[in-house]
């Protein structure tokens, strides 16, 4: 075919087709090198907080999250989730939300917590004193700062309460873990590792099965027990080598029965940093009413056959306890009346701690329970002594508040949440996410092209094919 001089219109068409192909190729390269300017479409606001999930287990949290995500997404595949948080989620829930965000699902959260950044640290002081340096810092300014104090607590109760400041510090002679600091809705918690010590335990009781097996459990748990068993008003049988009650020698005093005791000496011992455990009928000693954290109102019998179940403590005779104001309920069990009964209550008295146990015959747990009864009885009594002495070893606690559940992010939970999910999104008065600003015309065009990835390829192919066909028809390659 002989080439002919191109008509100006055909030449203009060929150059236009080539320009269209180059523009489409440039647009494809631009879209490949940049992310979308259009945010993922937000689902309806899920008025649900993972902090409200009763069971903090990972499986329960995951099931609830999937159910809420599906409900918010409807029939379409969920690309994003907006969660309204009225409280800072627990550590496992924050980790789960961070995992969801890492699985290519956009997670936005609306801040209804009224919390602020709060960080807590605790470090043991080198030396034999066992003191702990505590530091609290955070962005505690704004409307909450003028009305809410900074409160420092440990397992024995409130340690201090001061007006809100940006940073504060204490040196504590002893700490019962866990250590917590709070300002209004903001709370941080750390597990305090204080050095263990080898001081002894003074056990005062009447001769019987309870005193015998309590002493055995404590010795098996590693405590050195000195005992004084009162057999008459003027006669006592000793265990070990009892000495003068002093915090330099003894860590804890354990009273198991209603006895005539030196109330002044025991009170002074506790105020100077010692621990006191009141178990069973010792809760009725009148001379210790001033430092007792509970009132024992009436006795309740154990549930028949419960010693051989998964909750053997329900099979023990116990006192019904009413905790005093300022005391901390460390452990509770369900009762037959449809509510929970406190069975372990702690309170700080001076520099020491007083722990009240409701059980009157815990030895039955060891001797009449399951094959694991002896180990469980020993572990429970060891935890009670550790709580009274401030030693972080097996402290019994309610679910979600034990050292086994300690999480690094709990020292600064708000910062941990922001680090995992990013900052909170703004919301309007109705609680819906604030509207996103309308994209520009260029951004809208790029989003349309990105939504149809094959369109640019078709434009490039048609433009190049049209130019090639025009050139071939006039005899030019």
How many strand elements? 19
Question: Structural class, judged by helices and strands?
Answer: alpha/beta
Proportion of residues in extended strands: 15-25%
| Count, helices | 10
Main sheet makeup: 8 strands, mixed
The CATH architecture category of the largest domain equals 3-Layer(aba) Sandwich
Strand order of the largest sheet: 12-11-10-13-14-19-18-17
Tell me the count of domains: 4
- Low-confidence stretches are 36-45, 392-405
Mean pLDDT: 76
| CATH class descriptor name of the largest domain | Alpha Beta
Any idea what the radius of gyration is? 34 Å
- At the third CATH level, what is the topology name of the largest domain? Rossmann fold
What characteristic shape results from the CA principal axes?
elongated
Query: Helicity level, as a percent range?
Result: 25-40%
CA-to-CA gap between the ends?
Answer: 11 Å
Give the H and E element order: HHEHEEEEEEEEEHEEEHEEEEEEHHHHH
